[in-house]
Task: structure prediction
Amino acid sequence: MEVSLEPRQKLQNPAFVWSECLKLIKPNVSPMTFNTWFTPIKPLEINDATIKIQLPNAYFWEWIDQRYNALLNNSIKEILGNDAAIEYIIMDDWKEEPSVIELHHRASLNVPAPKQEIKPVVEAKIDYETNLNQKYTFDNFIKGSGNELAVAAGMAIGNNPGGTSFNPFFVYGGVGLGKTHLVQAIGNIIYANDQSKRVIYLSADRFSQLFVDAIQSNSAAEFQRFYRSMDVLILDDIQFLIGREKTQDLFFHTFNSLHQAGKQIILTSDKPPKDLKGMDSRLISRFHWGLTADVQPPDYETRLAILNKKAEEFGLNATPDIYEYIATHVTSNIRELEGCLLRLLANVSLSAREIDLELAKKSVQEISTSRKITISVDLITKIVCEEMSIDENKVRDKTRKQEIVIARQLAMYLAKELTRISLKNVGLYFGGRDHSTVIHACTSIQNLIDTDANFAEIAKNIKNKIELACT
Result:
């Protein structure tokens, strides 16, 4: 027989109080927010109108505190009265005792988020390589305004892979912004928490190459079973599957199998799903099932923090004005910041002089002049199609209409001229065509340029526009 509790007794029951609090919170946030940030919270105990609730980690606390502190406090006061307060327990999985942060009046306190320590990944004796780089952890990942959402979501996934609404987790952004570091940090923390988890990281290009190898060795079925056995699949640079129809089809079925089994899928790309021209529409749809988060270039404060962190790693000792100068003048990505410090270190070693502002300026100038113009096949195709009034999607189709064929061939020709992409990959981009088709296209366009002055002028103008777009 179930014994009912008196109202006063209920208010001393942390599970009851928290469930009532959740009833007030739920209508004020989206279902995804509620499931991701509130359902993992565990009520522990109530003492003198103070409820203790446990959060999975410090990043979780920071996200909750910055965005939902008022909602939480108002809800708990509605249940327990105006004297009610919340005590957050941050559980560190690698310590026997939890650390406690009291937030009775958050506005009057300035309590920093506790630094989370992550155990180094220890390789277990398993039948495959995780491919995870142990140096990529959240502990050495610099968080800033440009990656805040991605980092918070990544920590939530790391704590509960496959159990959040962030599945798949799709991270996109430009080169050198930390996407690979972030997704490998997620993999590392999952593996550090539970080494029985089958976690694997690889690039989409490598995934495709392994699939081709499996077909050639008549082991495609084993290949599929292997990747479907994973608990966490991290695929970097998913855009490299464009044009590879068979690999996309395999990945589609692998994706479905993993997702239906509640396994975690993590993907990165240089652009958002909607801009992945040539990707199977079924995959694009599935990429939107979870969370899509972009990573933006770091702001000044984040660049400064990165420089200080990297300088410490390199053993470089310079005055603050040196780092401030570099952070002001190197703004595009993290990779260039690191490159600038390495050049500064090299210049110090070669010149046997102390680090000064002139040396910093020299290093920044070297980075600026060594930047290569990045011209992508995407950009080439876009400008060619705009200038020739052709639907961009048509150049990847099998149509033989003359105007479309010429646009496709010109795009292939310029891709060969202006990029270092292999003929094979150029062909794959344009609807899975082989390298011989690209060679034929280049020969045809060169003949047109040599024999048709009007077309030669058109091709020249388009090439100039492409190069101008990248300066």
